[in-house]
Amino acid sequence: MDGDRERRLMSQPANPVTPPAERRQQSEAAFHLAHPRYGGTTVLDDLRRSDFARLDAGGHVYLDYTGAGLYADSQLREHLELLRSNVFGNPHSLNPTSAAMTELVDQARAAVLGFFRAAPEEYVAIFTPNATGALRLVGEAYPFHAGDRFLLTFDNHNSVNGIREFARARGAETIYVPSEPRELRVDEELLPRYLTEVGGDHHNLFAYPAQSNFSGVQHPLAWIERAQELGWDVLLDAAAYVPTNRLDLSRWHPDFVALSFYKMFGWPTGVGCLLARREALAKLERPWFSGGTIVAAFVQREWYQSASGAAHFEDGTVNFLNLPAVEIGLRFLDRVGMETIHDRVEALGSGLLDALAALRHTDGAPAAVVYGPRDFGRRGATIPFNFLHPDGRVVDERYVDRVARRHSISLRTGCFCNPGAGEVAFTISRETLVGGEFGEGMTLDHYIDAIGLPSGGAVRASLGLASNLDDLDRFTAFAREFVELDRVPNDLPPRVGC
Ligand SMILES: Cc1ncc(COP(=O)(O)O)c(C=O)c1O
Which of 195, 294, 303, 381 could make a disulfide contact with 345, Cβ separation 3.0–4.6 Å? Predict the structure, then answer.
């Protein structure tokens, strides 16, 4: 890139100049006309001013809700007030401070079941450190044996992919269901072929995300029942779905559901959940016991008695002081309304897709490529893309990061811990991967060169409950910087991870 252009870009103010009021009004009116349901979400504009004022005070455009949700100020106030005005001890003793805490832990557990409309007779809510902790609980305790199958979609977070290591160690077979290149969905006619290949007398686990953290694709919840009828236990990774969609467990009955609460409402971090059907939970074989998971154990006799229900799966002391914040967060979402949040991100996400589709170089060539669905049916507001140079080459995502920082925009770049979706999006074949081993002493940059990738992944913009039209405008102004960009500077930092 020429030095003048770089200097010009660098000297621009962090917050681009707002278009004249009139033009702004016109474009807002057009947006409302195109997205009539957006008008019903103004409560979120009020909340942006009252509870998320720190975003505008700091000039931030936050577009990484799939990475982490944001908390409302009111959640913190309520949580801190509770901690300040009470004395809480480690739960599960009989003393007064412990009993007070136990009551709140039970209350949080009931709130989780209630929020997801999960009948307590059918489901157990197990608190974990995060969604990964929930997935690991299933992976390490699922009774995989030789002849059993672990079936999963290409499109999965690495915390689901990792379960294949448990399957392999126990002699079970791992099978991947591919996604279709353009839309990054699974061919609905292909899936039954995989689902019907089930070992009759065996344990079979099928895992997929309700919403892709790479492409935003929402894979059908109807697969749950179909797979169960054919003899599969179904593990639904709901981490990227539940922040902006209602998961109704009175309508859908996956055997296991994994999620992280910070993705839903920002605070607290360090708490996730495994929602498990009691029947499915009974099949799990925990590889060890620990404090909290047993009723009794002896040393002189190697015997222990497991605790029942959730306790059997909660190792050690739960994150007890943070659990009341889960109930507070769920109440907050209920007050705002999941449908309102859903309508909001659908309209803004659709606007963001339009902005990227409209981004053109002066000769009319596209200045951005979006991976996955280009319209807003059966998807969430997680949008992966790359900017393109006028000759069609992908703009290095590290430079995109640099420009985004100058605009105070928080985006995600890389492969988003979802290599399968990336392999399909960037049309990387199995042969390429098998040929190009990640050798000793190799850096990620060398590896990317060795297998001939055009960049280190993609850029991901994701929207959430505090997103607004200003964010969209500022994203659009940022995106315009890539029009007619023919080179990036050669001082980009090395890539350290995917
Ligand atoms: C779909 C999906 N599954 C699992 C995870 C893992 O979540 P955590 O890192 O909170 O365990 C993520 C995180 O981004 C995700 O998006």
Answer: 381
Q: Per-residue pLDDT tens for 441-489?
A: 777 777 777 776 777 789 999 999 999 999 999 999 999 999 999 999 9
pLDDT of 15 above 90: no
Verify whether ligand 1 is closer than 6 Å to residue 217 (CB atom): no
Catalytic residue among 273, 415, 417, 498: 417
Any atom of ligand 1 within 6 Å of the Cβ of 111:
no
- CA 314 to chain CA mean position, Å: 23
What digits encode the pLDDT tens for the residues 252-297? 999 999 999 999 999 999 999 999 999 999 999 999 999 999 999 9
Q: Specify the residue for token string 């994150």.
A: 319
Residue 243: how many other CB atoms lie within 10 Å: 32
CA 68, CA 238: separation in Å to the nearest integer? Answer: 14
Confidence of residue 16 (pLDDT cuts 50, 70, 90): low
273 is catalytic: no
Cβ–ligand 1 contact at 132 (below 6 Å): yes
**Burial of residue 390, with CB atoms counted within 10 A of its CB: 0-12 exposed, 13-18 middle, 19 or more buried:** middle
Tens of pLDDT, residue by residue over 393-437, are 999 999 999 999 999 999 999 888 998 888 888 888 777 776 656
Measured CA to CA, the distance from residue 288 to residue 297 in angstroms comes to 12
Answer whether 156 contacts ligand 1 (Cβ < 6 A).
Answer: no
Please give the average per-residue pLDDT across 309-333, as a whole number: 97
* Beta strands in 262-329, from DSSP E residues, in sequence order: 272-277, 294-297, 304-306
Ligand 1 centroid to Cα of residue 205, in Å, is 19
Place 12 in a pLDDT band, splitting at 50, 70 and 90: very low
Question: What is the number of other CB atoms lying within 10 angstroms of the CB of residue 407?
Answer: 22
Is ligand 1 within 6 A of the CB of residue 157? yes
Strands 256-260 and 233-237: parallel
Q: Which uninterrupted H or E stretch holds 177?
A: strand 173-177
Distance from Cα 175 to the centre of ligand 1, integer Å:
21
d(CA 66, ligand 1 centre) in Å: 8
417 C-alpha to ligand 1 centroid (Å): 8
Q: Say how many Å lie between the first and final Cα of the chain, rounded.
A: 25
CA dihedral 464, 353, 343, 221 (to 10 degrees): -90
Q: What is the pLDDT, as a whole number, of residue 17?
A: 55
Q: What is the mean pLDDT of residues 370-377?
A: 93
8-state DSSP, 19:
P
Angle (CA) 399 400 405, round 5°: 95
Q: Are 295 and 343 in contact (CB under 8 A)?
A: no
